[in-house]
Amino acid sequence: MKYLFYVVIGFFFGVVMYKSEAASWFRIFEMFQFKAFHMYGIIGSAVVLGAIGIQAIKRFKLKAFDGTPINLPPKERRLYSYLFGGVLFGLGWGLAGACPGPMFVLVGAGFPSLLIVILGALLGTFIYGLLKNKLPH
Amino acid sequence: MEIILKPWPWYVSGPLIAIIMFLLIFAGKKFGISSNMRTLCSIAGAGKFSTFFNYDWRSESWNLMVVLGAILGGFLAANYLVEPNFQVNLNPEVVNQLDSYGFSEAGKDFLPAELFSWKNLDPKNIVLLLAGGFLIGFGSRYAGGCTSGHGISGLSNFQLPSLVAVIGFFIGGLIMVHLVFPLIF
């Protein structure tokens, strides 16, 4: 039953990704060409509202639905992994035009070729796991 | 109903994404999709090859439910929540530019058939889609998050590492679209 809550959130997320066109390869290309405000508006407004809400959670010490304190752990301080990992991710995002959420949304939307992208992403994750200790973080 | 069938503007979509993040935060979880790739590897037995995949993936199964929901949401939106004459309203300059790369009528469908068509799947496209996915999977794990985990969750929490990651996303995307695309398309 508790799983249903997450399926519903995911469902809502999937509809938003499709209806906002954030899952469209064309919109990602357009964003990296700086030819439309659309994607910047989506990410920017999500972050502005997100930042206000997170400040409110911290200031008023808001509790989770089950009454436990909300824990927002800071990201580990280091540089190389965020930068190098980020650049590699961006190369893939630009090429496939879909980030990890939209990949799945698009499979549901009737584009089976995204299964190839997902297969690639699983391979990439697996190879990272193998090489993790040899990479600069 | 008509307003749902039309494309949703950024000032509706962005706040809805923030609400999704808050629903997950108030459920005691976090908004980050790419970690599901690690969970799926772990379920498939990748722990035999690297301790990176040795963890209790059941504690992350809620996130797989988010992914399951996303697939269903994509199905509903694409089949029932669009107008019959739907197209992506791109900047005409972008349409012309894509035409010069061999992508005709950009925006007429949700994705370019030249790259994603399942019927005309050729070896070149298979390699490009696999490579794109590989970079996304490897890069997001190396960076410890993707557009949702760093771009939305991390930036909203004023995390400097997430800002570095997002700058990385843009460096990578700009290199791909401006320097690599002219070579491969």
Task: Give an overview in words.
The complex is a heterodimer of chains A (137) and B (185). Helices cover 67% and strands 0% of the residues of chain A. By secondary structure, chain A is mainly alpha-helical. In chain A, helix 1 (2-19) crosses helix 5 (100-108) and helix 5 (100-108) packs antiparallel against helix 6. The longest helix of chain A is centred in the middle third of the chain and has 22 residues, at 38-59. The radius of gyration of chain A is 18 Å and the shape is globular. The N and C termini of chain A lie far apart (40 Å). The relative contact order of chain A is 0.11. The model of chain A has no long low-confidence stretch (mean pLDDT 97). Chain B has a domain at 1-86. Chain B is mainly alpha-helical and 185 residues long. Chain B has helices at residues 2-5, 10-26, 35-43, 61-80, 92-100, 113-116, 123-143, 147-156, 160-184. The radius of gyration of chain B is 19 Å and the shape is globular. Chain B is built from 9 helices and no strands. The model of chain B has no long low-confidence stretch (mean pLDDT 96). At the A-B interface, helix 1, helix 2, helix 3, helix 4 and helix 5 of A face helix 2, helix 3, helix 4, helix 5 and helix 7 of B.
Write down the Rg of chain B.
19 Å
Seen as an oligomer or otherwise, the chain set is: heterodimer
Radius of gyration of chain A: 18 Å
In helices, the fraction of residues of chain B equals: 55-70%
Distance between the termini of chain A: 40 Å
Shape of chain B: globular
Instruction: Give the N-to-C terminal Cα separation of chain B.
Output: 40 Å
